[in-house]
Write a structure and sequence with these properties.
The protein is of the alpha/beta class. The chain folds into three domains: about 60 residues, no CATH class; about 210 residues, Vaccinia Virus protein VP39 (Rossmann fold, 3-Layer(aba) Sandwich); about 80 residues. It is about 35% helix and about 20% strand. It is built from eleven helices and twelve strands. A seven-stranded mixed sheet has the order 8-7-6-9-10-12-11, with helices on both faces. Helix 7 crosses helix 8 and helix 7 packs across helix 9. It binds S-adenosylmethionine (SAM). S-adenosylmethionine binds next to helix 1 and strand 7.
Length: about 375
């Protein structure tokens, strides 16, 4: 974390201010060097309740086994393994990120102070930092933070923090809060959503993406029980080759059938659509390693909720947002966005309604077209 993070962090237990312990290892930040000070090893002492939180390998560690759900901590440890096995950064993540956050675009982040709940290997913090955000606090509950720090921790404005979304150590709220592919892995997804929404500034915005229940009955019925009973407990040495086998079948399917069919379907509009076509043709752009990582990611976690649209929009209503923008992404997941600024909401609604935006795939349906 950079020294400037001290302006934002607060003791998660009592909300007291932090003091950086003397003797902490701080790198960079010499005047004129163009770098900012990076705290690599040290301790944060709460001036109020005298609790201490370690900073190790560039990351302050706030996860407290007494206050977080055991399930969530276990989930974080499983994903930590996943990101250690698949740490690669890929240029294709940029478009994927913007597809998830649409109608937010890359210009949106400039000069903003941003929070990401569940950052994994840091692929989104990289894009946000490159888009000139002022600061991005990328939080994860598990060892993913070590991969994230190695990938992006020293980029301008990036702070990697190990903490639970439900027990965050911030005194300031944020211009923009986002969480992509995370809340459905929490023991209590709404609790995480609520915690994130409380950190949005009075004129800020929030964007979350979750697995949908609609169209995913096969995952709920067949994959979930196998994941819970078996694959989420398998050691890396077995899960890695097992997911490679599944990924190989998926790779052959999307490259040899789905992609050619989608190309033909663009030309011959009368060709029928098949089940899951939107999602499968979306992931057909990936190479084998990425598909391996996607399959591994699905099998490694002990918890995956598939959230019906009605529940998802009720989350927003419960926090007082009557009219969020909810999109059906690839016909198997939901993205929700709201901004407290009515002018911004109006322009985002207009973007969603715009048919000619440079979408890489048919990636959204307006609310009235949703099931
Ligand atoms: C599927 S990954 C998505 C990561 C990232 N958003 C991305 O798309 O690259 C889910 C991440 O959420 C993290 N996570 C799960 N529960 C969490 C919690 N309660 N607090 C913070 N992070 C959590 C996991 O450790 C994991 O890295």
């Amino acid at each position: 974390m950079k020294l400037s993070a001290l302006d934002y962090l607060v003791c998660p237990t009592c909300h007291g201010a932090f003091l950086l312990k003397e003797g902490s290892v701080v790198e960079g930040g010499t005047p004129g060097s163009g770098t900012t000070s990076e705290v690599i090893e040290g301790k944060l002492d709460c001036a109020n309740c005298a609790k201490h939180y370690a900073i190790t390998r560039g990351v302050p560690r706030f996860v407290d086994e007494k206050s977080s759900s055991k399930t969530d901590i276990f989930t974080g440890s499983r994903f930590g393994q996943s990101w250690k096995s698949f740490p690669r950064m890929d240029e294709r993540y940029r478009q994927q990120f913007l597809d998830w956050t649409f109608p937010v675009d890359a210009n949106y982040f400039k000069d903003k102070v941003i929070l990401e709940g569940g950052c994994g290997k840091g692929r989104h913090a990289k894009i946000v930092s490159e888009s000139n955000a002022k600061e991005i606090f990328a939080v994860d509950i598990g060892d993913a933070v070590d991969v994230a720090f190695a990938n992006v921790g020293r980029m301008p404005g990036v702070h990697i923090i190990q903490a639970d979304i439900c027990d965050l150590p911030f005194k300031q709220s944020f211009d923009f809060v986002f969480s992509l592919g995370v809340l459905h892995h929490l023991y209590d997804p709404y609790k995480g959503f609520l915690a994130l929404s409380k950190l949005v500034k009075p004129d800020g915005a929030l964007c979350v993406w979750v697995y949908g229940r609609e169209n995913n009955k096969w995952l709920v019925t067949f994959v979930n029980p196998i994941r819970v009973a078996l694959t989420s407990k398998l050691p890396e040495i077995i899960l890695n080759p097992l997911s490679a086998v599944v990924a190989f079948v998926l790779y052959a399917l999307v490259k040899l059938f789905v992609h050619p069919w989608s190309l033909l379907a663009k030309r011959f509009r009368w060709l029928p659509k098949f089940y899951y076509q939107d999602y499968l043709s979306y992931i057909a752009r990936h190479d084998f390693l990425e598909l391996h990582s996607i399959v591994y990611d699905h099998l490694v976690t002990p918890v995956a909720h598939y959230i019906p649209r009605g529940h998802f929009s009720a989350w927003f209503n419960k926090i007082g947002v009557a009219d969020p923008i909810i999109r059906w992404h690839n016909k198997n997941s939901w993205t929700g966005f709201y901004s407290h600024k009515s002018s911004e909401m109006a322009s985002m609604h207009a973007r969603v309604a715009e048919p000619d935006l440079s979408v890489t795939q048919p990636r959204y349906q307006l609310e009235h077209k949703n099931p």
